Each structure stands twice: as structure tokens, then as C-alpha cells.
Amino acid sequence: MTRSKTAVLALEDGTIFHGRAFGAKKTAGGECVFNTSMTGYEEIITDPSYYMQIVTLTTSQVGNYGITQNDGESETPKISALVVRELSPMVSNWRAKEPLSDYLARHGVPGIVGINTRFLTKLIRNKGTMNACLSTAGISDEKALQLARSQKGPADSDYVAAMTTKTAYHFEPGKSEGGLFAVPGTTLPQREHRQVFRLAAIDFGAKRSIFRQLHHHGFDVFVLPATSTAEDVLAIKPDALFLSNGPGDPATIHYAHAMVAACIGKLPIFGICLGHQIIAKAIGAETYKLKFGHRGGNHPVKNLVDNVILITSQNHGYAVTADSLERLGARITEIHLNDNTVSGFCLPGKDVFCVQYHPEAGPGPHEGSRNFEKFYQMVTCRKKNEARSLTSR
């Protein structure tokens, strides 16, 4: 890593930061956001939900355990660029394959180190998420600011189309995770002595740890592209439908709204993050952009059904309006305790529920993992009720 100040970060409000370059020699643009997780940078930078975003890590030092290539949520980085306060000059991890800087350079992702990330984070909190440009290619401040201000936002593009799988596939942990490299030693064995259900999982930009959790809890996962229709879903004769996380504005992907609307009532449905928002749009509810989003591993969520408070991992820039859900007969089941935004809801009598947070963690606490078991039990009850209905005829 060079010690000269060769990197520039420009925000659309005119704020300019100078620092040292690491990673690739490149100019990149996108929304500048921050994540407050203390660890888990490998999972963060490979999370498809961060597509077209410049991610600021608020933890003081990054890179100390390198890159393992077993912990990533996808095969390559999905962020536009990375901002850190300090980059560790050493890698201390027996599992590491390469340093963070080399990994980013190999995949064409630029980074800036040595800036005041506390000031940057407070700026985003006060002014809201802003478009930005990060360059390690030696461009002028004026050029960087021009590029920042010319960036398109998620409301103008379909980010899901860039992140979804292009073809359907059968998820096999550690073997062929959607064309990803195998990850021996990191798979979750399927729970024993339980019926296995056939699951159609829509990939809107999914983290592979979600599919591992679904497989672990008793689902045989068949992953479908985001553009799949209800007919495509029903054609594989699934027992249930899962809707994954993903990037961008939920209001832009109308094809997903239509598919989910057609499947409600026909299949049990579970949605996470963007999947949560898509279910809301499918029933006619409203979504809106948060000022600076929720991104980190310590977000408190209260379950209104059993009064339990969970510490959750979150990564989203949009939320669902509570009044639109209630007006449409949905039941709000969980709220974010920092700002009272909706963190979960269900459709009574429809076998549909969803959460705004990430119960698979990756990185973060595992308290929300009970949602996978809840989904399994929902499908189990649905199949038993269908069997009773058949025998009573």
C-alpha cells in the first residue's frame, strides 16, 4: 500500500476527503453508506445487497484477518469501493489466503484509507445517504465531484437484474452453490429425522448463508432467477416459496411484485430484507427510503407477538410504511427499537411472513435464526392441513 495521498472521496454535497489508496487503481461511483459491524468485512463486501454502494466501515481497523474465501457471501466483491480508517499492515489468521488489499485489487475494487470515518459517518447521519465518487486513479477533486453528482440512484435502475442468478439451479452446500466455489468445512449439515420440503427460492441478490440455513432446517432448495413468474415457480411443484435479500429500490421491480401477488395463498412464503419489502409491494403497501439506512450487526428489534427483543444484523436503505400495512390487513409483528420502523409482518390466514433484518447473520448475531425454524413449522402445518383435507373428502 502506498504511503502517498493518492486517493480522493467526493460526496455530492461538495465534501472532499483525501487519503491513501489501496485495492485497485480505479474510479468508482455509488451511494456512500456506513456499516457499524466490528467484524465481518469479508461477508459485507461480498453481500450483493451492497451493489453500487461505497461502503464505509466504522470499526477502527480493517484487514487484520485477511481474506479466507470461505466466508464470503458470493464469489466476488459486490461493493463499488471501500472506505476505512486504518488498514492492518499484517494478516494474522491461519485460514487467510491473501490480504484484503490484494483481494480488492484482483477484483477491481478501489479503497481509501486514512480518512476520518467518524466525521464521514456523522455527515451521512446528518445529511442522509449521498452519491459519491472514490478514485485511486489520480483524478482531480473537481472531476471526482462532477462524477459524484452525475451518479444515478437505485430509483433509476434495476439493481436486482445485475445481481440475480441468470439460470435456475439446485443448491448443494459445499458442492455447487450456484456456480460459486466449494466451501469445504463451512457447510451446515441438514437436521436429522425430519421431513425435507421442496423449496422455490427467488434470488434477488441472495447471500449464500441464507440458503445454507434453509437447507440446514429441512429444505431442498431450488434457486430461481428474480424474473421468474408465478408459473415458473409453481412448475417445479414446491412446498413453499422463499424471497431473498437484494439491492436497490423495491418499488422498481414490478415483475417481482406480480409474481409474489400470484403466489400468495397458494404457497407458504417467507421473505428476508428485500423479500420483506417485495411482499409489502405485492399486497399494495408503500415503501420509502430511509435517511441513512440500517447497516450493522447490533440493531435491536422487538417481537410484538412474544415481547422478545432480538439483536439483529441489518443491511437495507428502504422500509415499509406501517399505516399502509395495517390498512391492507397485514399484522405488524416486529419493530426496530431505534426508530420504530417495521421489522416484520405477516398476512393472517395466508401463511406469509417476513422480516426486514438478516436472521442468517453473516456477519452478526444469530438470535433471529429462529425464523428459519418458524418457516419450517409453518410449512409442516400447511402440509398436515392439506393431508387432512384430502382424507376428509
What is shown here, in short?
The protein has 393 residues and is α/β, with parallel strands linked by helices.
Task: Describe the protein in words.
This protein is globular. The chain has eleven helices and 19 strands. Helix content is 25%, strand content 29%. 50% of the residues are buried. It has a ten-stranded mixed beta sheet with strand order 10-12-11-13-14-19-18-17-15-16, sandwiched between helices. It has a seven-stranded mixed β-barrel with strand order 1-2-8-6-4-3-9. Strands 5-7 form a two-stranded parallel ribbon. With 393 residues, it is an alpha/beta fold. The termini are far apart.
Characteristic terms for this protein:
11 helices, alpha/beta, seven-stranded mixed β-barrel, 393 residues, 29% strand, 25% helix
Protein topology:
Layout: E1 7-11, E2 16-23, E3 27-35, H1 41-45, E4 53-57, E5 61-62, E6 81-84, E7 86-87, H2 100-106, E8 110-113, H3 117-127, E9 130-135, H4 141-149, H5 159-163, E10 169-170, E11 197-203, H6 208-216, E12 219-225, H7 230-235, E13 240-243, H8 254-263, E14 269-272, H9 274-282, E15 287-303, E16 309-320, H10 322-327, E17 331-336, E18 342-347, E19 352-355, H11 370-391
Helix pairs in contact: 8-9
Task: Please provide the ordered H/E string of secondary-structure elements.
Answer: EEEHEEEEHEHEHHEEHEHEHEHEEHEEEH
Q: What is the strand arrangement across the widest sheet? A: 10-12-11-13-14-19-18-17-15-16
Name the overall outline: globular
The helix count comes to: 11
The major beta sheet can be summarized as:
10 strands, mixed
What distance lies between the first and last C-alpha atoms, to the nearest angstrom? 73 Å
Q: Helix amount, in percent? A: 25-40%
List unreliable stretches of 5+ residues: 178-186
**Class per helix and strand makeup:** alpha/beta
